[in-house]
Design goal:
By secondary structure, the protein is of the alpha+beta class. The chain has 2 domains: 164 residues, Endonuclease, Chain A, CATH 3.30.870; 156 residues, 2-Layer Sandwich (Endonuclease, Chain A). It is built from 13 helices and 17 strands. Strand 12, helix 8 and strand 13 form a beta-alpha-beta unit.
């Protein structure tokens, strides 16, 4: 893991390494992700813009309110149903706290989901991944997060945030996909937003061009074209392995039975809460992560974000997480697969 060293540098944050990965540890119910986010919030000097699906973390709310009091521009975009509506439920109320402190919160107000998970600090640092800002997301579910120090990437995410803040959600929101590729310290990075960027059409060539290996961790994998591409690469001799979230993989739409019946090494997770990753690693080098489940809803209807990073060191971290979860996962029950 690349260590981050944070501090104040005139008008923003700095770090000795430009990226950091983090993974939840449900067995210990620890939340290093939250501790680091609080540190980053406390260090921010100009702006914190949050696009997050749901929320019930007191420490994050308290840190954001303190940031607002010292003059930081704090804004939050969330989902109307799973964000604002659930704020009235027991154990919630954090959005109400933000609003009382003068922090504006906006929701998508549409049937589909504002499912993004990203934060931009001081127009310089982007935090994203699969992690919802909840007790479940940070302590009980298997999740990942990545912190990226790049003003160029921050510009991309700020543009998307501004669109949502102006009320542009879903398929009608504008795509700026041609402006969403940068190179950071020698690492090519592409950012995609669903549904406007037609994410699956960008992921399919990456999968189809896999030469040696594909590893995936999936909360929901129901997208037939992505599944067919992985199955095709496996038949061509590429080493394809994946872990499915158990409950999600036992629906009639899951790609798990196809993979299992074709002899592909696939497993189901053993977390009694949820296996919430949305990760693909290709050829030990290309990492795909973000809020985007491998589903038609994510691709065509929900607001989602994806980052694609070509960096073998970052890939090592995600492969280490894969190997850890693979070791504790289990073979699917043959009787449920109904192979012909």
């Amino acid at each position: 893991m690349a260590a981050l060293i944070w501090g104040l540098a005139g008008c923003g944050l700095f770090q000795k390494s430009w990226w950091q990965t983090q993974f939840t540890n449900p067995a210990q119910q620890t939340n290093p992700i939250v501790a680091d986010l609080v540190t980053n919030i406390n260090s921010s000097q100009s702006s914190i813009h949050v696009a997050a699906f749901e929320f019930n973390l007191d420490s994050i709310a308290e840190a954001l309110i303190a940031a607002k009091k010292r003059g930081v521009d704090v804004k939050w975009v969330t989902d109307d149903e799973y964000g604002l509506a659930e704020d009235k439920d027991p154990g919630h109320g954090q959005f109400a706290q933000l609003k009382r402190a003068g922090i504006p919160v906006k929701a998508d107000n549409r049937p589909d989901l504002m499912h993004n998970k990203f934060i931009i600090f001081d127009n310089q640092i982007v935090w994203t991944g699969s992690t919802n800002l909840t007790i479940n997301g940070t302590q009980r579910n298997n999740n990942n997060a990545i912190l990226l120090n790049s003003p160029e990437l921050a510009v991309i995410f700020e543009r998307e945030f501004a669109e949502m803040w102006a009320g542009q959600f879903g398929p009608s929101s504008p795509s700026t996909v041609d402006l969403q590729q940068v190179t950071v310290n020698g690492t090519p990075v592409q950012v995609l937003f669903a549904p406007e960027d037609k994410v699956s059409s960008k992921l399919l060539p990456l999968i189809n061009n896999a030469k040696s290996s594909i590893r995936f961790m999936a909360f929901s994998f129901t997208h037939e074209q992505l599944g067919a591409a992985m199955l095709s690469r496996a038949k061509a001799g590429v080493d394809v392995q994946g872990i499915f979230e158990t409950n999600g993989s036992e629906t009639q739409y899951s790609e798990l039975p196809k993979f299992y019946c074709a002899g592909m090494p696939v497993r189901q997770d053993s977390n009694p809460s949820a296996f919430h990753h949305k990760v693909i690693v290709i050829d030990n080098n290309t990492v795909i992560t973000g809020s985007y489940n491998f589903s038609n809803n994510a691709d065509r209807r929900n607001d989602e974000n994806v980052v694609i990073l070509n960096n073998s060191e970052i890939a090592k971290d995600y492969l280490s997480e894969f190997n850890t979860r693979w070791a504790e996962s289990r073979q699917p029950a043959k009787t449920r697969m109904k192979c012909r």
